[in-house]
Amino acid sequence: MKCTFCGSDIKKGTGIMYASIDGNVSNFCSRRCMKYFIMGKDHRKYKWSSQKK
C-alpha cells in the first residue's frame, strides 16, 4: 500500500487510514502526511515527499 500524500510504501500493520465525510478513504504513513493532506498542502513543495505528480 502507498501513502496518499508522499507516495512511500506503508508496511503491513502500520500507518493511518483516514475516511473523509464524502466517503473517500486515504492511507498515510505518518501523522505528518495526514496533517499536511488535511490542511490542503501541495506534496510537490516538500523535499521529504518523494511523490512527483
Overview of the molecule:
It is a single chain. The protein is α+β, with helices and mostly antiparallel strands. It has one domain (1-44): Ribosomal protein L24 (Ribosomal Protein L24e, Chain: T). Helices cover 17% and strands 15% of the residues. The chain is built from 1 helix and 2 strands, in the order E-E-H. It has one helix spanning 31-39, and strands spanning 16-19, 25-28. Strands 1-2 form a two-stranded antiparallel sheet. Strand 1 and strand 2 (25-28) form a beta hairpin. The longest helix is centred in the middle third of the chain and has 9 residues, at 31-39. The protein is globular, with a radius of gyration of 11 Å. The mean pLDDT is 91.
Determine the N-to-C terminus distance. 17 Å
Specify the CATH homologous superfamily: Ribosomal protein L24
Radius of gyration: 11 Å
- CATH-level-2 architecture: Roll
So how many helices? 1
What class would the helix/strand composition place it in? alpha+beta
What is the general shape? globular
Low-confidence stretches: none
Counting structural domains, the number is 1
**Percentage beta strand:** 15-25%
CATH fold assignment? Ribosomal Protein L24e, Chain: T
Helix content: 10-25%
Order of helices and strands: EEH
Major β-sheet strand ordering? 1-2
Main sheet summary: 2 strands, antiparallel
> How many β-strand stretches?
2
- Overall mean confidence score, pLDDT: 91
Name of the top-level CATH class = Mainly Beta
